[in-house]
Specification:
This protein is mainly alpha-helical. It is built from 5 helices and 6 strands, in the order αβαααβββββα.
């Protein structure tokens, strides 16, 4: 015979645990959506070749697609590609992440678009970088790396 274990307030401990787990999972999903939207919007601001529709429902669809990519598919690919990442020092992971990012962009072509662009002249201390032409392929690689870094930085900081 199994007894119901109750805490001090009379609420069963199991329901408190399940409520806690539910709250934690909701917080994680909310953080996932917020971090993906920050990464998507910040990448769109500085990269003139990366455009996302700012219509709220379309932006939400793009955010959910990016969140699914960076929180579900990329961790699985890290496990699967681990031996190749050791050999290639992570280059296989960058290529695979860029490929997944391209597949997401091509699936949502009306919402997310990416094209080549002209990077402006940049001067930082005594380092000068002249204007550079970035084609669509390198822009996909650049955007996938930047969004990955932004999402991971937000995860670590907050």
């Amino acid at each position: 015979m199994q007894e119901n274990i109750t805490g001090i307030s009379g609420i069963s401990t199991c329901s408190r645990c399940s409520q806690y787990l539910y709250n934690e999972s909701m917080k994680r999903i909310f953080r996932m959506i917020v971090f993906s939207s920050v990464a998507l919007y910040s990448t769109m601001l500085w990269n003139k070749g990366f455009d996302v529709s700012l219509v709220p429902i379309q932006f939400l669809i793009a955010v959910l697609a990016i969140a699914g990519l960076y929180y579900l598919l990329i961790p699985l690919s890290k496990i699967i590609l681990l031996p190749l990442n050791f050999i290639s020092f992570g280059l296989v992971s960058i290529a695979f992440n860029s490929l997944l990012f391209y597949l997401i962009i091509s699936r949502f072509s009306g919402i997310i678009s990416i094209k080549g662009w002209q990077a402006p002249h940049v001067q930082l201390l005594s380092l000068n970088a002249g204007p550079a032409e970035i084609n669509a392929f390198w822009n996909i690689v650049l955007c996938s790396i930047v969004m990955y870094v932004v999402i991971n930085l937000l995860e670590k900081l907050l």
